[in-house]
Amino acid sequence: MPFDTHRIPTADGEANAFAAFPDGGGRHPGVLMYPDGFGIRPVIREMARELASYGYYVLVPNPFHRHGPAPVVDLPEHIGEEARPALMARLMPMIESLTVERVRGDADAYLRFLTAQPEVAPGPAAVTGYCIGGLLAVRTAVAYPERVAALAAFHAPVGADGPDALAGLTARVHFGHAESDLTPEALSELNRTLEAAGIAHSSEIYPGTVHGFTMADTDAFDPAGLKRHWEHLLPLLRGAPAEG
């Protein structure tokens, strides 16, 4: 699977990025993929390659580029619970620095870069993200509705900016929540917000999962949850109607 590394100009300096795309030339639908709070690393690159194998050009930017190129902190090969507190203590200030305004400015740069690549087909992109990257994906889709046709977010605080922000969505949506992140009551409230706004969506709790379930290099990893993630993400990208 071909891949490239890039440096994307933004208003606050260059963001390093990883891109994966299919063999054989041609032009492919573009997908902007935001990593989780641990950033670009082997497991994220592998997920981007897998998504690219289904016929997509996948761009993964470093959302913490203001703090240096990825990886912005040294990560163990496996991020166990014993390592997590110290890592999060270093990463949380970077995560908290991602204001709505900064995310929107970066997203504009990422989408412009993505759609300008010769391997990317014309038309709106899709955007997906994990953990805090899911919130960045939501903010991107809200800010640029004419440039984003599909939005997916997994184990992500998708409602962190309030229901009014979600009401601005026009993209097709899938939210896959960890069982440890959202109660059934909170899920019902979120889905009522999406329904009231007329957003084509599916939004569900993945049974038996905890926060971070898609990430194979963490203790939270759940193979069944990751499989379910692909079973929702791929139809969404192909334009299938949202269900659920």
From TrEMBL:
Residues 17-237 form the Dienelactone hydrolase domain. Pfam families: DLH. It comes from the Bacteria. The keyword Hydrolase applies. It comes from Streptomyces althioticus. The keyword Hydrolase applies. Keywords: Hydrolase. This is Dienelactone hydrolase family protein. One of its GO terms (molecular function) is hydrolase activity.
